[in-house]
Design goal:
The protein is 0% helix and 61% strand. It is mainly beta. Strand 5 and strand 6 form a beta hairpin. The strands form 2 sheets. Strands 2, 4, 5, 6, 9, 10 and 11 form a 7-stranded mixed β-sheet that branches. Strands 1-3-8-7 form a 4-stranded antiparallel β-sheet, with no helix packed on it. It is built from no helices and 11 strands.
Length: 123
């Protein structure tokens, strides 16, 4: 399973960006899709996650500003980021978790990561 993230860039404080992540490869179901971020000198942190049922969770610092969504027909997850702040600057990573892979008689779950896309919020 491969994840291709896109949509990062440079934006001024208060601006918006929309990240996209497309999954490809052989799998039956992606139970959870999520966005993480890692700022310089900091640990990677969960930003938002969404289940196959559409239940979404956000880290406190982005609530009300970011919206995660998914399109299962396209095997894609999106992160709409509004009212961006300098502290949102980081490399953003797409994650597909509890992905059901294998053969019909040998199913298992696995986790996969995208390559990361840089988001820089600066004037």
């Amino acid at each position: 399973v491969q994840l291709q993230a896109s949509g990062g860039g440079l934006v001024q404080p208060g601006g918006s960006l929309r990240l996209s992540c497309q999954a490809s490869g052989s799998f039956y179901l992606i139970n959870v899709m999520a966005w993480f971020r890692q700022a310089p000198g900091k640990e990677r942190e969960l930003v938002a996650r969404i289940t196959s049922r559409g239940n979404a969770n956000y880290t406190y610092s982005v609530k009300g500003r970011f919206t995660i969504s998914r399109d299962d027909a396209k095997n894609a997850v999106f992160l709409q980021m509004n009212s961006l702040k300098p502290e949102d600057t980081a490399v953003y990573y797409c994650n597909a978790d509890r992905v059901v892979i294998g053969t019909p008689t040998n199913l298992r779950e696995a986790s996969f990561w995208g390559q990361g896309t840089q988001v820089t919020v600066s004037s």
